[in-house]
Amino acid sequence: MSSPASSQPKKPKSILKKPTAAPPTTPAPAAPAVAISPFPIEEHTPSPAKPSARDAAVQQALIIQQQQALEDEIQDAILELAKFPLVTNTANPSDSDATTTTASTTFSAENPSPTDASRFRHLIRPFQPGDFEDLITERNTLGRCGYALCPSPKTSLGPRGGTYKLVGWGRPDFSIVPRKELERWCSPRCARRAMYVKVQLQETAAWERAAAPSVKIDLLDEPKAEKEEAPIATPATAENEGQGEEDKERKAARDARDLALERGDPTEAPSTKQIQLTIREKRVTTTVQEPSLAKDKEDHLILDGYKTKFDGKVKAPMKGINVTEAALDALESLTGV
Prior knowledge:
Blueprint lengths: L3 H4 L45 H29 L7 E5 L8 E5 L7 H11 L4 H13 L22 E4 L7 E4 H4 L5 H11 L36 H29 L38 E2 L2 E2 L15 H13 L2
Helix pairs in contact: 2-4
């Protein structure tokens, strides 16, 4: 009979290795120091998503709508300015008797109404030169002067006449002007007023300069601002003003002298450079001789240094024989005389 110890199963043997003592840990080497750049490092930002076709179409439609709105505003301004001026005269009570007497102030192109002038400046700001020409054409269609602040009708030269007109005949300002140009205004003065405004308008379209500061429009006959009070004159200020005037004159003279030198004009001031000249008489080494003819006596054939030559086919006469005598002998032999 076997013993109970031998009947018990044996404990399985582990196949894993027994753990050994952990090796001594060594400190990890320190990471090298990174140099800090003085320039800021931009963080990477993802690119925005590409707009869709619908978004691009909507944006373009809004731009076109804005342009059309500005064009409509300009057209409305043309129609409104075509009826200008709105105020031609006003009645002001007199200082002597405000209840019975009134003094009437008549406005004209030279002295327009302040309200009309202010409204004109406001409406004309988005205009281009082409829009201003449209305004002139619209006013001429209504029979008015092309200048918006002029209450007079335009000039009418009648059905007769040519395409051009003589203006200022017999005067220094004589000119030949197209007939249509004369019929746009009531007078040359209004033409100058209108052109004075036109040259201040910008060529850029109104929607391209929407964010730009407003254009300031000045009128030709606009009353000037009141002059500022003059500073009190002192000896120092008078001396500075005198010195400034001298500097301006000196600079103007220097500029004029440089311009004359550049163009090659003779200078008015005499030259300070002196040159010594010695005048000596030419010595004659030969004796004086009276003029005589050349030996060949053919000087009469020389013209401006060129001697006339005869045709080479003609045989030269023999030496010692006179040409005239030889011709006579030949003639006698032929006639038998």
